[in-house]
Each structure stands twice: as C-alpha cells, then as structure tokens.
Amino acid sequence: MPKSEPIRPSLFRRAWNGAQLELRMLGIVVLLAGALSLASPHFRTSVNLYNLMDQTVTIGIASIGASLVILTAGIDLSVGSVLGISAVLLGISFGGWGVGAAGSIAVCLGAGAAAGGISGLLVAKAGLAPFVATLGMMTIGRSQCYVMSNAKSISTLPRFVEDLGNAEFMGVPVNFLCLIAFYLVTWIFLNLSKTGRAIYAIGSNEEAARLAGIAVDRVKILCYVLSGAGAAVAGIFLAGRILSVDVVAGTGMEMDAIASVVIGGGSLTGGRGSIIGTFMGVLVLVLIRNGLNLMKVNAYWQGTAVGLVIIAALLVERLFRKG
Amino acid sequence: MISTDSPAGAGAGRTPAADPERPSYLEADDVHKSFGGSKALDGVRLHLRKGEIHALVGANGAGKSTLARIIAGHLPADRAEISIGGRRVRIQSPRDALGLGVAMVTQQLSLAPHLSVAENIMLAELAKPGRLRRRRLFEMAGEFLEAVNPAGGIDLSAEAGKLSSAHRQMVEIAKAMSQNPQVIIFDEPTTSLTPFETERLFEAMESLIRQDKALVFVSHRLEEIFTICDPVTVLRDGHNACSSVGIGSLDQSGLIRLISGRELGGDLYGAGEAAGRIAADPPGRPRDGDRGTALEVKHLSLPPKVKDVSFTLRKGEILGLAGLVGAGRSETARAIFGLDRRAGGEIILGGKPYTHNTPRESYRLRLAMIPEDRKTQGAIPDFTVRENVMLGRSAAFPGFGTGYAGLLPMVMDIIGELRLDPRNLRKFILDLSGGMQQKVMLGRALLVNPEILILDEPTQGVDIGTRSDIYAILRRLAARGISMLFISSDFKEVLGICDRVVVLAEGRKVAEFEAAILDEEKLTMFAAPRTSARSTYRLLQALGERWPGASIYWVYFGRGKVYCFDLLDGCGGLGFGAGAVVDRGSTCLAALEMENDSTVAEGSAGGSPRAHGSLVSLVRPRRNARGRRLGYIGLTLPAGRPDSPCPEEFAGMVERWGG
C-alpha cells in the first residue's frame, strides 16, 4: 500500500486559519478605538481608559458563563437576576447574618452556582427548553432581590470586596487584570481540557457526543453552574466598584452577555464560537457605549445605536461566512 | 434489473470465507423492538463469527438498521438475548457496546461538524477521565486514519464539517476503530461513495478481517454483497428471511426472492411493466415524440451544490434524477420548487419562464413537491392526517376560513386512490407507520391537482408492501398525464420506476438515458464524480501522450451497446461520445469479437487491432488491484498510420496503471 503523510499545514498556517474570526474582531475593535479617539479628544485620556477597563469587568465576567452555555446550544436568561440576587445575598449575609467576609463571599458564589445548577437540572434532566427554564429563573431571581433586600440598597460590604473594586496595579485596575485571568483560564479550559472539548462536541452534534459516551447531561449542568457562579463573581466586582448593592443590579445584563457572545462570532445553535471572540464582543459593546457617552449622544438613543451595531456585526459576519 | 456480469467479475476478488466450523462470537437472538404500535423487529437473530464480513440485508424498512443499532447500543431493545464470546451481556447504551468491543460506523450522522477531524476520531476519548493530551490525541487519530485511509489527503486539524462525504466516511471508520472493537457494524457505508472509494473501503474492511475482527455490512446493494460478504442474513418486515446463509448457495435472483418475498424484483416496480416496456417499444420510442414538454430546466445553477443542470420533463413521464449523495439532486429539486433561490439558469414551466420561484407560487402553478425528509420537512406532527393533507392546498389558495369542509369530498377521493383507510383521517399523523405517512404526503401533493410532481426519496423508511403500492400509484398518475421528477439514491428503484434517467455528478448533468438500457452497476459508474476517477483519467492522458492523434476511451459493453464513461477524442468518427450509450454495431467497435454480451473475447481483446472502416481499434480490460473488471480501455487510430500501436505495449500500459 502506498504510504503518505496526512496533510498537516504549518503551525502558523493553522493558527492563522483558526484565528480568522478573532483577527477580524480585533480589527473591528482597533478601528472602533481609532475612530473614537479621532471623534473625541476625551477618549484617549487616562481617566477614560481607566473607566473603560472598569466598565468591561462586570459584563466581561458575565459573558464567560453565557459563552459556555451558548456553546452547548443553550441560553441563560437568568444571568442578570442571578447577579442581582447573589450580590444582595453578599450584602445581607455580611451585614445581617454576620458570617464574615469569607463566609459572605461563599454564600454569594454558592447562591449563583445553585441557581445555575437548578437551571441546568431543568434543562438536562427534566428536558425543559433552556429559554423557558432560565426565563423562570430570571423572574424568580429578580423577585427575590426585592424580597430579601426589602427593596433597599445595601452598602455594608466586606472590606475585601471594596478593595477589589478600587485597587490598581501599575495603573491598571486590578479587577480588569482579574478579568484577563478569567478569560485565560476559560480559554485553557475550553481548548485544552477534555470537558472543554466535550462542550464543543455537545453543541456541534449532541447525539454524536452521547453516542461517543460523553456524559452530556453532566457537562451541560456544569455549564449552567459555571454561568450562575460567573454571574455571582460579576456581582461581587460590581458591588466593589460602586460600593453598594441595588435591587436592580444587573438588570438586562443577560442581554449584554448574549450580545457579546454573538458579536464575537458565537452561534446560538451551538458548537461555534470562541472565548476570545466573546472578549472582543465585550470590548465592542463597551467601546460603543463609551463613545456615545463621550459624544454626548442622548441616553435614550444609545440603545438604538447598540442594537444597530449588533445587527450590523451579525450581517457582516454572515457575509464573511458565506464568502 | 439484474446485472449478469458482476458476480463473475466479483469472483476473482472474493474474500475467503470464515471457517464455518468456528463458533459464533456474537449471538443476538429473539430481538424484539416496537416503535409506537408498529413492530420493527419481531424475534430476529444474527450470529457473527470472527473473521467474516456478514451481510445484513433487507429492503427499506425491513429492520436491518434497527437491528444494527440495537447491537451497537444506539437503541434499546424491547427484548433481546445477546451474548458475546459465550457470555450473556446487556447492551443498553453505546457506552456498554463500546465497552464490550462493539462499534458502529453510521451513515455520517455521528460527526461533530465544528470539531477537528482528530477530535472527532478520538471523541470517545473526551468521555474518559484524565487530562487531555492534545499531541497524543492527534498522533493516535493520525494512526487510526492512516490505517483506514492510506491514500491520505485528510487534514487532521480541519473542521469535520468541511470534508467531502467520502472523507467523512473514512473519518467515521477511523472513529469506530479508535475503540479497538472486535465487532464493527457498517451501516450502509457506500451510499455516498463512488465505486473507487467503495473499493478502498472494501480493502480497509478486508484488512480488518485479517486482524480477526467480525464485521457486519448493512446494505441493499446486491453487487457489493456478492463482492465482499459471506455469509448473509436477510430480514423481511421484521423477521428473519434467512440467517447466516453461505453466499455460495445464493445467486442474485435467490437473494432478491429472500429480500422481497416475491418471485422477481422487477415486479415491485409495476407488474413486469419495466420489462414489457422494453419489448413493446421499438427503438426511438415514438410515444415520447407526441408528448408535450411539461418542464424545461436550462443551465440551472445554485453554487456550491448545483453548477450546471439541464433537462426536459415530458408530459406523463417519470424522469429519474440519479446521483450519489451530494451530487446536487435535492438542491436541484429545491431550486425548481422555489425553496432556494437559484443563482442562474432558466426554468420553463408549461411553456412560460418561471422566474420568481416560491413554494406558494409553485403550488398555484400546479407543481408540487414531496420533500426528502418526511419527519422534518413533511409531516406537521401535531396535526391530524386530514389537516396534514389539506395543508398545501389551504396555504396556496387562501381565503377567509380554512375551507376544509368544501375540500372534504376531494380528500376522500384521494384517500381512496391512495388506499388509505378513511378512519385514519382523524388520527394524528405520527400514529401511522412510515409508509402510511408517506402516502399522506403524497395526498397533500395530489390535493393541489398537480401537473408536475417532484418526489425526493419518496420510499425512504417505507416498508416493502407500501412501496409497491406507491409505485403503482405513481404509474397510474403518469398514465393520467402527470409528470414526475423522481429522486432516489436507490439506483435499482430509479431504473425500475423511471422512463428516463438524468445523471448528476458534482452538480452537473453528466448523462441522460432511457432507463431501460442501463443497469445498476453502469448507472453507478456514470454517477461517479470525474474527480474520483482520477487514476483512469491519468491513464487516458498517458496513452494520449504516447499515441498523439488517437482516441482513448473508457467503456463498458452490454446489451449490444457501448457505454462510454470517459473519452479523449483525438481522431473523431468513433460513433460514440463521453457519457453516451449507443448500439455497438454503429460504432468503430463493431468488429470486436465478443465472448458474451459484456465480455470481449480474449483473442480480440489482447490480440491485433480490429479494423472498422478507416479506423483501427484495440481494447483491453481494465482491472483494479482486487482483480475486479472495471470496463475496458480502448484506443482508436486512423488506419495506415506508421506508428500503429503495438498490442503488447498498449496492454502493458493499461496493466501498469492498475486500479
């Protein structure tokens, strides 16, 4: 039999081919930043750049969980509410229950993970549509924010949380560095671990994954748990940044997270998307909001602008994929 | 429809049978399985020995895939006694089956399109505990792939969804091998392969039985079964028609009898009409002449699947659209019906250009289609049969209210025509068997009173009884003047039911014939994409360079005709062209001495050139590495040239280029 090596392009070629989407997104981010720095003299000021990084953190963390869930062809609408209820519990458990700083953070993370776990069980084991299961969780979560906090904002927070929100390292906010670290860890998880690849396999062809012996239900539940826990982490950083927890904290965050994933090339039918793409999506979203603020665009109009950008990004991506 | 020459051709490459004295390795007995109310399997058995390729055969809906999936754990059985290596086992999930060394190569549904080839091959690895070692995973995937696909050409890091269907099939096999199975079930692996790729698959399968694996080959292509399998188990309507019968004790008609439970396979397609047609119609078939044109398609294109398709559908004609999976058949149908917008070309319907194709408009113009996948494109699961039938009509002819009451008499007529029990009208469509559901789909199309009917795989998942009903209905419709475009991957069916066949390969029309002059094997050859016949093409080129000005061609013989698959025309005047079928008597090959209808006499094939008129011709059988004859390579030159070919040199070149 004639022997021949299977074709294996060079490492550079493979990396280049594999990163097309991310490179395109990076291009958009750079273009956007360039345009903004031309349009507004305030854009390049260090105060504004600091602000930008600060604003990226909450939505950035929430988008990680959203990415995982969307990769399995699911969706998590409860991110915003879970962020809210976790943050409320952080304040209440620290101020009211006296569980201490570490204890309150554990309560907060636990609440987020539990909420995600319930959504995951409903999706994977009870067979509910992800949209419905997490819609229920979203409504319950927001209602509990009001119930538990009596609709009052809470400003008794652990010192650690407050420091986290305001510390900086070499002029860069520490929470932004944490965000970068989270994204790195997630990238490694998704690309270099068996579970990470199983997430892609499930979203790409769930039946095939099941037939190959992958524990589909368990992996799916894990994704929802991580999404809930991620929302709680986002809640901690948000509380630290604004030094209080409001009952409406995180409202609409789920839509920002989903938008980031989608702008970053993720497919709502699963299996397609990358965590770096999501990060670029977050940057696009934050840059647009920031730019509109700097250019003093009426706040009521900002939603329209953001919506148009989301639609435009998807249309452009569709063209690229066809061509 | 029975090809006479293939068992003879296959004999040379026949795989040695496993030792019949050997005890069975896997025994599945008394397997029962029901779907809803209908029994798919009713106490069937399958016994496998190591070192054999066991054919599991049956018509569509006979239960062969169900049995295969139960053994591989993809479906739970209602009841089954399965033992492996003498030990009773329970197989409840694919995981159980893989643990027991049973793997299945499915019909390409089991790849994750967004993952790399390597990850797909090693997918089961992702389910095991431990760290992911990417480099190791790629190395192992490469080894498994190399073993089944020594020809290479598949990039391990490519996305699986972007591979050609043949390559995907190879990845599927490598994936099954990654679990080191003892039993490997191939579920209709050849439906998307060209004859050349099929040969490569067979080589891979033979190397597996040399490693003492037990293989199951599920197929409905008899030629393939006679080529590579021994023994045979036949299922018919959920029962064993036979179990582990040696292939040597069967011939084609015997096997057809076992599969269909009837005397002759031809009967299935319309009570001997296929055979009668040939005898009754003189050459030229004048009855075609006075038929008008129902539909004309000119240079239709819809990249990437459809590139250049032209044909004419006459009134009252059943025209087959044949091709391998991925040849662009369904896409052509979808573009005509208006499901997808075509990129180029013209469609002329009833004499007028049809420009803005939409399904709605098509219904108004009385062009109806029965889509490929009944489950996802046809039946509305939560509707009753009645409402499912009425759907097409009410969508295309809107008005206030549903108009159901007024339609009812017409529906009753159609139900009668389809021989459906009127009591079924109030049932939900999913409560009916696959065959009955397909009749309901046919009813929906008939309710718009169509002049043209496009049928995409209309007998998929339909039991054999209902199939022959459907064929009879189609024949009656054709007799009433309804034209049909009939798409199927079952070439036997295409040849049995259709008047003419248009063959597509890689999105282009490559040939067009009267169905009566072709058999399944030759149709398969015509349907093979040119890219897959590259070695033959290179041989023709090499011969062309050696003898400039000569015509070099690749042909088959049979039924007194020449079937030309490929041609480099250097001198002209051959009397045939590429993709053509013509009477041998009218070509330059008329003087060949034939041993029988399909075989050139040894003396003539290897001997001196035969002269015919002003041309001299020389032909030589082309065989692949397994000794199977793949037609003839021929060379024709004007007589009296100084460099007239030396038969030995020509023969040597043809031999050297092997299969």
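The interface with chain A takes residues 74, 93-95, 98, 109-115, 119, 123-128, 130-132, 134, 142, 145-146, 150-157 of chain B (CB under 8 Å).
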